[in-house]
What we know:
By secondary structure, the protein is mostly helical. The protein is built from two helices and no strands. The protein has helices at 6-25, 29-43.
Amino acid sequence: MDGADNELRAMWGALHHEVAYTAARAEQSATAWRWWDRAEINARPDESAGLWL
């Protein structure tokens, strides 16, 4: 995701969130937390874009 714009990063993070949610519903907590961490990292905006509200 290097060089991706903030909108694409947000969508990618949302997809990771859905995988985490699915794993949590299947009672696979370790997998869910791993995907949740990836979602958080991927959804963050690029540092050069400044703060987002």
